[in-house]
Specification:
Strand order of the largest sheet: 3-2-1-4-5-7-6
Number of strands: 7
Order of helices and strands: HHHHEHEHEHEHEHEE
Structural class: alpha/beta
Largest sheet: 7 strands, mixed
Radius of gyration: 18 Å
Helix content: 40-55%
Strand content: 15-25%
Number of helices: 9
């Protein structure tokens, strides 16, 4: 009985805070990052904006979500150097399609190189322009309700716009994943009034109060909000 009581002291009724040792253990027993993704991550690390790349455990988690939802058609808003797009596209069936939106030719050159290396170029349709323009063009082309999975990881000020456009493009029961919704914890600091922080706060409140969807903010990476569309 004494052993059971002592063991229970290690249980928690809240999300565990990960120190470096625990995080390394999580990676060692959970993440199976491919050589190609590891190479892409290392090459991206040379860019001063490398912090924009998702973590390996988040990439693997999103691959699992794509498979769990049975997604066949996916959309990514904000591609950067391509790590997340490869995770999503790899999880789609052979006849699946991923539409990627980004307005940076420089960053996405690396993404396109790695899509070729991964043999995913035929699965991925890339649009190099403002994401809002691509999303509106899809809506104008009768793509409403045609996507099973959407990932938003782009400029934070436009999150509300991308959110509404994405809900139109997503099928009922489809899954929308939105990145950076904990914003390195700054959203919880009332004294932090930086534009990006304020934008994420506004977005989080908007989603919380939206009764059209089911949602949960998952503390993985920099915060990943999962949203299921509950309406036609």
């Amino acid at each position: 009985m004494r052993f059971i009581v002592e063991e229970s002291l290690f249980l928690s009724n809240r999300t565990l805070s990960l120190d470096d040792r625990t995080y390394e253990y999580l990676l060692s027993v959970s993440v199976n990052e491919s050589e190609l993704l590891s190479e892409l991550r290392e090459e991206t690390a040379g860019d001063k904006f490398s912090v924009m790349q998702i973590s390996p455990e988040q990439g693997q988690f999103m691959s699992l979500l794509v498979k769990l939802t049975g997604a066949k058609r996916a959309l990514e808003i904000g591609t950067f150097t391509g790590y997340s797009s490869i995770c999503i596209a790899n999880a789609l069936p052979e006849d699946g399609e991923l539409v990627c939106c980004d307005d940076s030719d420089e960053w996405t050159q690396m993404a396109r190189k790695y899509w070729q290396k991964a043999g995913l170029q035929d699965k991925i349709q890339f649009h190099l322009q403002a994401a809002s323009a691509t999303l509106q063009a899809l809506l104008d082309d009768s793509a409403a309700g045609s996507f099973d999975f959407i990932f938003i990881d782009a400029d934070k000020q436009n999150y509300p716009l991308y959110y509404e456009q994405s809900l139109k493009l997503l099928r009922k029961g489809g899954l929308l994943a939105v990145d950076n919704t904990l914003w390195s914890g700054t959203v919880a600091d009332p004294e932090n009034m930086q534009p990006g922080t304020r934008a994420i706060r506004r977005f989080n409140e908007m989603v919380k109060n939206d009764n059209r969807v089911s949602k949960s903010l998952v503390p993985i990476g920099d915060g990943l909000t999962l949203i299921v569309k509950d309406f036609e």
